[in-house]
Write a sequence for this structure.
């Protein structure tokens, strides 16, 4: 990713330094290209499959917490009953938070692993597109502040190449 980021950063500064007519400039949203790839879709499906049980448990706990909260707000209970319900609410809330954190951590770990595995393929795909179109400056869409001409967007082509590399 560092190499790709460096290419995009250098490209942005090159656009500013070179006359527009002397440079072939294009736009690439590498994040979108990568996340639109078949490999990313498979990775997301595998992640969802691994997390399905935890997500179902978290959803069930969330519903139970809402129900308990409504019961606590609407009912008249003895102090012992109210205390028991509050304790149950706190325990379920703690488990819900624990599950939520585990899910977030697994998603982040999975995303990082996917990015590391995909980096070489992404770099090859970008290099192929640069060569094919004779691009001298490649910029990230967020790096384009203003352009009076429609810059070619090579994101879809990079995604296609990524899909062919799998």
């Amino acid at each position: 990713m560092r190499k790709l980021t460096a290419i995009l950063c250098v490209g942005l500064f090159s656009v500013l330094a070179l006359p527009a007519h002397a440079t072939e400039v294009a736009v690439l949203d590498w994040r979108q290209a990568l996340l639109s790839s078949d490999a990313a879709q498979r990775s997301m499906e595998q992640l969802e499959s691994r997390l399905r049980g935890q997500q179902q448990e978290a959803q069930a706990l969330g519903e139970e917490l809402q129900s308990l909260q409504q019961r606590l707000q609407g009912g008249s209970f003895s102090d012992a009953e109210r205390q028991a319900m509050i304790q149950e609410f706190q325990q379920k809330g703690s488990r819900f938070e624990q599950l939520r954190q585990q899910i977030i951590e697994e998603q982040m770990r999975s995303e990082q692993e996917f990015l590391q595995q995909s980096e070489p393929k992404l770099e090859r795909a970008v290099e192929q597109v640069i060569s094919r179109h004779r691009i001298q400056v490649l910029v990230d869409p967020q790096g384009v502040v203003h352009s009076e001409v429609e810059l070619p967007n090579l994101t879809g082509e990079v995604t296609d190449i990524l899909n062919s590399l799998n």
In short: The radius of gyration is 25 Å. The helical segments are 2-17, 30-35, 38-74, 79-133, 155-164. Confidence is low (pLDDT under 50) at residues 6-22.
